[in-house]
Amino acid sequence: MESAMVATSLPLPPASDLAALAVSFLNERFQSKEDLSRTASLVSELDTQCVDLDRQLIELNSRLGASLVAYSSFSDGIHGRIGAIIAKLDELGSLTGDSDPKSDGRGKKILGEELPALAKEVARVETVRAYAETTLKLDSLIGDVEEAVSSTFSKTLRKQSSAQASEEAGRQAIQTLGKIEDAVTEVTKARPQWTHLVSAVDHRVDRALAILRPQAIADHRALLSSLGWPPPLSALSSSGPDASKPSSAPNPLFTMQGDLKLQYCENFLSLCRLQKLQSRRKSRQLEGEYREIALRQPLWAIEELVNPISLASERHFSKWTDRPEFIFALVYKITRDYVDSLVELLQPLVDEANLVGYSCREEWIGSMISSLCTYLAKEIFPIYVSQLEEESISGVKSQARTLWLHLVDLMMSFDKRIKSLVANSGISFSLIEERNLQKLSSLSVFCDRPDWLELWAGIELNDTLDKLKTETEGERIWTKKVQGAVLMSGSEDYRSPAISDCYLRSLSSVIDRCRSLPLVSFRSKFLRLVGAPTIQKFLDCLLLRCQEAEGLTALTDGAALIKVANCVNASRYFESVLKEWCEDIFFIEMGSEQSDEPGGSFLEEPGRGILDQEIKKVEEFRTGWTEKISVVVLRGFDALARDYMKNRRQWQEKGEEGWSVSKSFVGALDHLQVKMSIIQESLNRIDFVCVWRNLADGMDRTLFVGVLLGNMKFHNSGVKRFSHDMEVLFGVFGSWCLRPEGFFPKISEGLKLLRMDEKQLKDSLAGGREALKEHGIRQLSVAEAEKIAKNRVFAS
Fold it and tell me: Which Pfam families does the annotation name (predicted)?
């Protein structure tokens, strides 16, 4: 108190002798006569601050003195070593300059042993010197940083009048940290063995950043709050969020002027530079996958713009839990209304901070979507999951599944609108990396919760199958043909029933929803969980219908054959569409992603398509029932031709009068023509070719074994009779090919042997396999040819 009285009794210096800061300080503190009453408390406060500053000065002097003593001690040691080296060099010079023969041995010893050791010692000393200089340089820089960080928390810089000084100290600290990182990077490249030095520097820098970053963010938040950010959302949501109308609320950042705008830009730039520094450090410290994750952190300054908006928006979201479309509309409206002005103002600052690969447009949109996903994951989806669990326990159906699918529809619609915002920057979505696509999609909420993806897939599958059950009821779905069932890859008409088109439309819808997922791995998982069971359900429907037709009549009547043919047509069309889809890059990516998964059982070989296993099942069904159609027709033919093949006498007699074909063979031929006419009319052309070829192959074996190898004695009249019968049979197949005898190789070559004269036949058999080939017999073995020749009877 006494010192205060003395201070007040001293005469005041002229105002012109005072510093500008002192005049400003006095003007701020003494604005009226009433302020003079607080003089004593002000003097006490200034004394306390002076004491604090004196203590800090003493600490700095102490640190400086300790550093100087350490450097002096180290320098003395270095000087001592250098002196010893100089002495050895002088000794070396005197020895090498002496021409006395007695000194030759000593000189050789020096050149051969001591000189390399000396050079090694010089290199070691130089390394120590470089280490010392680098250590002192880094210690000095880190000391500056620690002092600047400490000053931001001192009482003096916490005063409102010194806020500018606090920001300046932070900027200086970031600049110095950049110099430290430059030095450490150079050490890492030039001296990789100095790991302890680098580790010690990183430890002290980490401690400084642990204080500097939160303080920088706190300063940035305070500045945003003083600017009026976030803008009021009441204008956006008072009458319901209508995204088609522009916002009436101005952007506070875009209306800044003068020093305020300069202050915000400097603050934003400092935060970006701090993030750039952190990115450089992580790039040096980390490797592999962790390095990529660290380098793609969201832009801190943009996050600070989004966070207060998210908090303000959640107050409105809580009113719309039963109307989620309002939530998406409000988020989209905020995102759209401010994106262009933010990009115009902030993108040049991001570029100036050299934050490579960052787009303010993408960061703003991505951060808004991230906040939306966070709200959905915390507040909306848990409600639906809880309702689904209650439904599974009680067995009482609720609206949870419908609400879930409605929410997913809203998310997909929202993502499509977001794509248009991104496209305005001139960047195609196909060029954006997958990890960036994830942050630009609201469906990324499923990427963070795979269990919810499985729930969604189960709901989607049940909904798809329920719709298909309704659409595929009745017989008309099997009789009505698909209109325009012709694929882009060809002009083939598959004659497919409409049921295949129903399943393909449903599967296409599943694939479209699958495309919305941002990650390829989750697309493939979703398609396996929904698409594969849908395809299996289609096959089950076809199989059940074929088995019903087979069980009633064993496919002996025309109606049963038509049913099976329709199912084969449906599977052929379905298989062809799936194969055409799988040529798209979308499916190829999913297939390659699946083949890369360790232990994946869905694909056994790398490079296969995502639907290859399902396509294989469809193909196996089609080929199995196509062969069964051939077997049924062949079985009927064999039953009706049994008497024809057992009649031995007919090959020794002339043909019946007025008959061009054997009577016992007419029934089998008639059966063949009737069945094949039905099959040709109802089956698609590709599979019909398979049917008649399988049938021709089966008949060739049956007639060859039953007649030609059946120990029948063939006279000349019998050979003619058999030739006429086979020509009629070939004629039936002549409707579908130019040379039908080519599909009956054994019968055709057997006829060649029977038509030979006696001498030619003997010569062919005498020459063995080569002689048979010269006479055009390539499909029969020598034993088979000999057996046919043995049963040939020539007239004496």
Answer: RINT1_TIP1
Phi, psi (deg, nearest 5) at residue 359 = -115, 125
Mean pLDDT of 744-773: 88
Residue 687 belongs to a domain with what CATH number?
1.20.58
Name the region of 397 (left: φ>0; alpha: ψ -120 to 50; beta: rest): beta
Looking at the domain assignment, is residue 64 inside a domain? no
By the 10 Å C-beta count (0-12 exposed, 13-18 middle, 19+ buried), 554 is classed as exposed
18 phi/psi in degrees, rounded to 5: -80, 150
Is the pLDDT reported for residue 42 higher than 90? Answer: no
The DSSP string of 478-496 is HHSBPTT---TT-------
Instruction: Give 13's DSSP letter.
Output: P
Closest alpha carbon to 717 in 650, 776, 661:
650
Give the number of other CB atoms < 10 A from CB of residue 775: 18
Residues 6+ apart with CB under 8 A from 129: 78
Question: DSSP states of 385-429 as a string?
Answer: HHHHHHHHHH----SHHHHHHHHHHHHHHHHHHHHHHHHTTT--G
Report d(CA 84, CA 78) in Å as an integer. Answer: 10
CA dihedral 578→583→588→589, nearest 10 degrees, is -100
Question: In degrees to the nearest 10, what's the CA dihedral of 510, 516, 522, 524?
Answer: 40
Contact 399, 453 (CB under 8 A): no
The angle, 0 to 180 degrees and rounded to 10, between the axes of the packed helices 782-790 and 745-755 is 50
Query: pLDDT digit string (tens) for 129-157?
Result: 888 888 888 888 888 888 888 776 564 34
3-state secondary structure of 12: coil
Strand partners, 497: 481
Model confidence at 469: pLDDT above 50: yes
Conformational region of residue 395, where left means phi above 0, alpha means psi within -120 to 50, and beta covers everything else: left
CB 532, CB 614: distance < 8 Å: yes
Give residue-wise pLDDT tens across range 191-205. Answer: 889 889 889 999 999
Answer yes or no: do 433 and 289 share one domain. Answer: no
Reduced to 3 states (helix: H, G, I; strand: E, B; else coil), residue 319 is: coil
CA dist 539 and 567 (Å) reads 9
Whether 184 is in a domain gets the answer: yes
Between residues 652 and 656, the one the model is more confident about = 652
Closest by CA position to 261, among listed 223, 231, 215, 292: 223
Residue 485 has pLDDT above 60, yes or no: no
How many domains would you assign to the chain? 4
| Residue 87 falls inside a structural domain | no
Question: Is residue 574 helix, strand or coil?
Answer: helix
Mean pLDDT of the chain: 82
Q: Which residues of 518-545 are buried (b: 16+ CB within 10 A; e: fewer)?
A: bbbbbbbbbbbbbbbbbbebbbebbeeb
Q: Choose between 207 and 114: higher pLDDT.
A: 207
Indicate the DSSP class of residue 232: P
Which structural domain range is residue 399 located in? Answer: 304-448
From 432, 448, 464, the end of a domain falls on: 448
**311-329 per-position pLDDT tens digit:** 999 988 988 988 999 999 9
From the list 365, 366, 379, 402, the residue with the least C-alpha distance to 327 is 379
Determine what percent of the chain falls in helix, strand and coil, rounding each to the nearest 5: 80, 0, 20
What three-state secondary structure class fits 793? coil
Residue 577's identity, in one-letter code, is V
386 with 444, same domain: the answer is yes
pLDDT of residue 385: 93
Chain position carrying tokens 């204080």:
211
Indicate whether 573 and 435 sit together in one domain.
Answer: no
- For the stretch 667-700, pLDDT in tens is 999 999 999 999 999 999 999 999 999 999 999 9
